[in-house]
Each structure stands twice: as structure tokens, then as C-alpha cells.
Amino acid sequence: MYRHIQALQQVSRxxxxxxxxxxVENKVPHKQKHFQEDNGIPIHLKGGVSDAILYRATxxxxxxxxxxVVYELVCAAFPKKKE
Length: 83
Fold this sequence. Notes:
By secondary structure, the chain is mainly alpha-helical.
């Protein structure tokens, strides 16, 4: 039992002491420069291929959703006749 507690203390000590050594590079100035340059690309597409895919998927879902709403409204406006 004591070995487990001692091992847990050692692991927690190791993770706490090594986490402060890693320095994260500040990428904000690079991103600001990339997004502020005037190259004719809209801001919502400057992120690259992933932004273009997300944009097109969003537009497709919006169009399909709007078409489905119109279809349901037409179905509700003209109910089927019971014979």
C-alpha cells in the first residue's frame, strides 16, 4: 500500500516539475500578420482548406435545411384529402 502512495507521489512530482520547463511558442503575431494581409481572400476562408470545407458544409446544410422547411410548410399548407 505504501509503495502505491510513494509511486503516486513520484509521478505527481515529476509531472509538476517538468510542466514548467516546456515553453510554448507565441504564434499570435504570426497569425495576426497572416489574417491581416490584403490578398483578396475573405477572412472566414484565410485559415486554409479546413476553413473552406467547413464553410461549404455549413452552406450545404443551410440550403438543405431551408429546402426541407419549405417542403414541410407546403405539406402543411396543402394537406392530403381523405377519401
